[in-house]
């Protein structure tokens, strides 16, 4: 490393000095592709290192790359809830589906299937779950489209001891049913040896049944009954450890009372089931007895495993059954619309279409006049089920047929892409023998309500979690930033939450729907969500909106909300990953927050290190702050990861009924049971931190953003957390921070302490300082003067010429004259920028290349380029985020990449004649820049085609230098105007005015991103190797070193190899080989 021939900054860069040795070492270690952990331990052996007298805090990297963390599913029971106690006030919350006709259209059934619509499922809590009675409005994505339901506090009531006992018994039954709604054991049937059987013993055939046995192979006796395994046995009733501490109750509407009649009927059904499922259990009712008249009580089937024939046909409509003819792996349920409208019975002849499904001998066995009956059809098609039913309770062929419609359990009701299109086909009605249909205890309306309840609870939990996160952040930012989550005391969630759905979000901004739209013709890209809002529902929504507006005070970060943190709706967006398949996700906000983090970290590092710290050191230290590892660490330390939703909800995997918990928590912890734990990858955790910052930036005042950055340690101004210690309220604390912004409209006062300017040496126009700098440079120049030729091709005249040129630099010029001359020379550049510099030496440094001898006087543009890059990225991201609200994250990324890329900035430099002001002394570089400028000005070009044309050779240095210079000029403007947002924004907008318009209308798609999207399974491995460039030394060795990036890509068994001066150039070669379009 100490060899003079090693030049990490290029052949024209400065040689290694004591101040740059640290950066050289960092760059050297970064090129090592073997295990460099030991070297990294040396670099990080101390938490603080000395750089030019400055103590810099270094962030320790994790011991190994973090892949994932196992996080518990968030629990809302603590500290809000306690178990329900008798004779004390309890709070009943209910949610109701829309009108029956609308639900029937969404569930793809007839409206007559829903008769008991005055019932619903309620939740009883010991305490309120939100401040507002209107808790939230959430979407449900059903088979035929989306509907919105509202969770509200229905009433406050007191349960007696008997009522509480009944409620707890009914709750256990409802909880068990909600875990596996259509489990065959719920209907009293089982499957063993490929055959169906009933739990109760066979009985004699009842009067009116069809007595003949069907012909079948094998034994006619009942198969051995297997032991029934209940998946609910892994749960234990323990409200204190349950994720949701509440009780299910059946509620009678509109008065909102507990339906005790229905609850007793359900408990009776459960008792009969428990008896029947025992190994030696006997059925409580004898099938030979007359059908009981009270099978249906309060809309609930009170008898276990009762056939539909046990209910009078006038009561069939609205019930739910399971046909015994279904395969054992079919969990389907069928809603009944009533008796067959054509008056068909079991002994009625079937239609010709059904007859075609029967064997020829069966059709010919009946006379042409008599025809094949429905009973014969079912006996032939479902031999085993028919036989078991006949032996068990007989089949009455004189009963009318029941009209049934399959109804979905809607397990994917939380998935935004479910129910996307309206089906053209009509509802399919099937006529069935009532004796071959077993009743479910719940009617179809309650059955559908209970099926959707796990999804409702999941969505409600997400809403309340977002509200709680808002309270948590408010406490941390304004009250106690250093306390743990358990030490913070904050209020209940506010409520009045409107969850975003595909009716309130632009469909083009929902990635799952984008992929769906891509497979449709453009004229047919729409979603058929014809949901209607009743007057009552509309009144609830308007009242909730009015309540939110009334609670908003005059203070806070947003005048329209009166909040000190973003609205919980935006926090939900910032904590929802793409894997959740929701209407919102953090991708757009993460893009915005990423630019803010990069900008804040750049200011932090730039103001921390001394002026002699080079770009390599600045970049390396900034990476410690903006890396995923650091953001992941912050989220874990502050407990923010607990509010992250990174999975697609599946009731079968993730649902635990209220009041219940896993009985064996040790096994669940070891196996990472999805009902208790969820895997969250470290990148998702880091992205959520950036998205949270993006939400603050987009919706709140800058002082709130600065306060959050201070909490994350991304600013020197930590006193923001305790501003105005004499303030009596959060509003007064907030007002002090606002004043810092209003006085300057700059981020510097918010992020940097008053005594720490960005670059004190550069902004101090002091003759003594300049002379001191000349003295330092004189020593460097003297050491660098060659005294003998280094190669055989050099001669003494060349040495003398260089020595005279270097010696001429030692003649000091008065500072005032130097600045006046430079300012006159750069007046044209200031006109192009639309900005007059107060400290012209900043602009001089911004245009000075490292190869120029002027770099010894003013420094080169590398440090300013580091700052300007972050400022440019921040300003551009803010503008495109606001101007293009419907662009998806991929489009925003492509647009930003195009605008801030080196190739685009080089084009801007040429288009505005900024390239003519570059100060450098390499003739080859001037030649390449001239060639590049000629191509830009004379030929029509595509952005990425032009980059590809220049990236694979030494000519790439031409646009790289020009792009870096533009970034350095932006950095110089930022420092000179003290970070004034209006000034720096106007300069950047003027420079990129044409590009904002052109690229905004026709986004140049990054070919590398397109390559990875087109070939998602493409695997790329890269390595770097240092080659010796001997051409400059006549092929005699000892030449300059250049680094070449070598990559190898594999896809579908094919291997591609490419090289380039950097990783991007090599990837562009791979994209060429794969045939990726370059625009």
Adjacency order of strands in the biggest sheet = 12-11-5-4-7-6-20
Given the helix and strand composition, which structural class is it?
A: alpha+beta
Q: Helicity range of the residues?
A: 40-55%
Name the CATH homologous superfamily of the domain at 760-782 and 814-1004. Answer: Ribonuclease III domain
Most strands sheet: 7 strands, mixed
| Outline type | elongated
The proportion of residues in beta strands is 5-15%
Please identify, by name, the CATH architecture of the domain at 760-782 and 814-1004: Orthogonal Bundle
Brief sketch in words of this structure:
The protein is 42% helix and 13% strand.
Describe this structure in words.
With 1079 residues, this protein is an alpha+beta fold. It is 42% helix and 13% strand. Among the domains are: 63 residues, no CATH class; 146 residues, Orthogonal Bundle (Ribonuclease iii, N-terminal Endonuclease Domain, Chain A); 214 residues, Ribonuclease III domain (Ribonuclease iii, N-terminal Endonuclease Domain, Chain A); 62 residues, Double Stranded RNA Binding Domain, CATH 3.30.160. The radius of gyration is 37 Å and the shape is elongated.
């Amino acid at each position: 490393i100490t060899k003079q021939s090693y030049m990490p900054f290029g052949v024209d860069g400065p040689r290694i000095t004591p101040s740059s040795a640290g950066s050289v070492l960092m760059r050297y270690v970064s090129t090592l592709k073997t295990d460099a952990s030991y070297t990294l331990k040396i670099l990080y052996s101390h938490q603080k290192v000395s750089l030019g007298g400055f103590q810099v805090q270094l962030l320790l990297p994790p011991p190994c790359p973090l892949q994932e963390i196992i996080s518990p599913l968030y629990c809302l029971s603590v500290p809000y809830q306690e178990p329900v106690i008798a004779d004390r006030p309890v709070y009943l919350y209910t949610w109701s589906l829309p009108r029956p006709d609308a639900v029937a259209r969404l569930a793809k059934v007839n409206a007559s299937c829903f008769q008991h619509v005055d019932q619903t499922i309620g939740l009883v809590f010991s305490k309120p779950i939100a401040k507002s009675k209107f808790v939230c409005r959430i979407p449900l994505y059903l088979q035929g489209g989306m509907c919105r339901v509202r969770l509200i506090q229905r009433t406050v009531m007191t349960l007696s001891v008997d009522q509480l006992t009944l409620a707890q018994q009914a709750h256990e039954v409802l909880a068990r049913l909600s875990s596996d709604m259509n489990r065959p054991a719920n209907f009293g049937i089982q499957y063993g040896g490929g055959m169906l059987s009933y739990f109760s013993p066979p009985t004699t055939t009842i009067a009116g049944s069809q007595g003949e046995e069907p012909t079948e192979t094998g034994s006619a006796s009942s198969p051995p009954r297997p032991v029934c395994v209940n998946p609910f046995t892994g749960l234990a009733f323990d409200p204190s450890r349950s994720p949701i501490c509440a009780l299910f109750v059946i509620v009678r509407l509109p008065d909102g009372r507990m339906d005790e009649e229905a609850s007793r009927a359900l408990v009776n059904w459960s008792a009969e089931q428990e008896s029947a499922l025992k190994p030696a259990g006997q059925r409580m009712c004898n099938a030979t007895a007359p059908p009981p008249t009270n099978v249906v009580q309060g809309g609930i089937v009170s008898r276990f495993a009762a056939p539909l024939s046990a209910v009078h046909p006038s009561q069939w409509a609205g019930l739910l059954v399971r046909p015994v003819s279904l395969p054992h792996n079919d969990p389907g349920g069928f809603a009944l619309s009533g008796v067959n409208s054509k008056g068909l019975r079991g002994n009625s002849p079937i239609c010709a279409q059904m007859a075609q499904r029967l064997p020829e001998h069966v059709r010919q066995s009946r006379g042409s006049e008599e025809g094949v009956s429905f009973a014969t059809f079912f006996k032939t098609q479902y031999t085993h089920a028919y036989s078991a039913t006949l032996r068990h309770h007989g089949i009455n062929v004189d009963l009318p047929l029941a009209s049934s419609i399959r109804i979905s359990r809607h397990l994917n009701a939380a998935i935004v892409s479910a129910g996307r299109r309206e089906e053209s086909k009509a509802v399919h009605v099937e006529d069935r023998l009532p004796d071959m249909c077993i009743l479910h205890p719940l009617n179809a309306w309650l059955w559908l309500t209970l099926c959707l309840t796990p999804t409702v609870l999941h969505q409600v939990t997400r809403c309340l979690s977002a509200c709680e996160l808002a309270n948590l952040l408010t406490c941390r930012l304004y009250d106690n930033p250093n306390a743990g989550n358990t030490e913070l005391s904050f209020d209940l969630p506010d409520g009045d939450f409107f969850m975003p759905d595909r009716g309130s979000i632009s469909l083009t901004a929902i990635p799952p729907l984008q992929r769906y739209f891509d497979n449709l013709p453009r004229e047919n890209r729409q979603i058929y969500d014809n949901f209607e809002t009743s007057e009552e529902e509309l009144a609830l929504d308007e009242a909730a909106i009015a309540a939110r507006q009334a609670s908003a005070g005059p203070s806070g970060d947003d005048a329209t909300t009166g909040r000190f943190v973003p609205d919980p709706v935006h926090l939900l967006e910032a904590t929802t990953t793409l894997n959740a398949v929701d209407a919102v996700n953090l991708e757009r906000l993460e893009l915005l927050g990423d630019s803010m983090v990069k900008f804040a970290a750049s200011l932090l590092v730039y103001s921390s290190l001394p002026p002699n710290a080079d770009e390599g050191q600045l970049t390396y230290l900034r990476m410690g702050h903006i890396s995923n590892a650091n953001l992941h660490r912050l989220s874990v330390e502050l407990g923010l990861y607990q509010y992250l939703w990174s999975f697609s909800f599946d009731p079968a995997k993730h649902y635990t009924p209220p009041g219940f918990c896993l009985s064996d928590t040790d096994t669940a912890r070891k196996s990472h049971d999805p009902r208790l734990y969820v895997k969250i990858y470290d990148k998702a955790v880091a992205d959520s931190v950036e998205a949270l910052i993006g939400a603050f930036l987009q919706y709140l005042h800058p002082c709130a953003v600065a306060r959050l950055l201070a909490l994350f340690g991304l600013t020197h101004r930590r006193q923001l957390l305790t501003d105005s210690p004499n303030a009596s309220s959060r509003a007064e604390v907030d007002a002090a921070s606002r004043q810092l912004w209003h006085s300057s409209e700059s981020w510097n006062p918010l992020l940097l302490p008053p005594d720490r300017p960005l670059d004190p040496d550069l902004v101090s126009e002091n003759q003594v300082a300049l002379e001191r700098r000349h003295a330092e440079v004189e020593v460097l120049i003297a050491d660098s003067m060659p005294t003998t030729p280094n190669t055989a091709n050099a001669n003494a005249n060349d040495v003398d010429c260089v020595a005279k040129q270097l010696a001429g630099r030692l003649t000091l010029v008065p500072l005032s004259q130097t600045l006046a001359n430079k300012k006159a020379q750069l007046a044209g550049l200031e006109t192009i920028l639309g900005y007059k510099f107060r400290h012209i030496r900043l602009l001089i440094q911004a245009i000075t290349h490292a190869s120029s001898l002027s770099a010894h006087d003013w420094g080169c543009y590398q440090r300013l380029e580091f700052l300007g890059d972050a400022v440019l990225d921040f300003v551009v991201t803010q503008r495109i985020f606001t101007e293009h609200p419907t662009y998806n994250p991929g489009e925003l990324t492509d647009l930003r990449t195009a605008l801030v890329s080196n190739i685009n900035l080089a084009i801007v430099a040429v288009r505005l004649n900024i390239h003519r002001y570059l100060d450098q002394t390499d003739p080859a570089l001037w030649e390449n820049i001239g060639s590049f400028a000629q191509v830009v000005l004379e030929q029509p070009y595509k952005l990425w085609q032009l980059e590809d044309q220049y990236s694979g050779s030494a000519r790439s240095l031409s646009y790289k230098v020009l792009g870096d210079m533009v970034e350095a000029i932006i950095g110089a403007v930022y420092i000179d105007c003290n970070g004034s947002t209006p000034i720096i924004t106007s300069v950047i907008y003027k420079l990129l005015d044409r590009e904002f318009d052109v690229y905004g209308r026709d986004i140049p798609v990054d070919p590398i991103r397109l390559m990875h999207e087109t070939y998602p399974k493409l695997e790329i491995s890269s390595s770097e190797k240092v080659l010796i460039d001997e051409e400059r030394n006549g092929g005699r060795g000892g030449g300059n070193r250049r680094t070449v990036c070598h990559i190898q890509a594999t896809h579908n068994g094919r291997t591609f190899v490419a090289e380039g001066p950097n990783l991007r150039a090599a990837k562009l070669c791979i994209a060429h080989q794969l045939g990726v379009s370059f625009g």
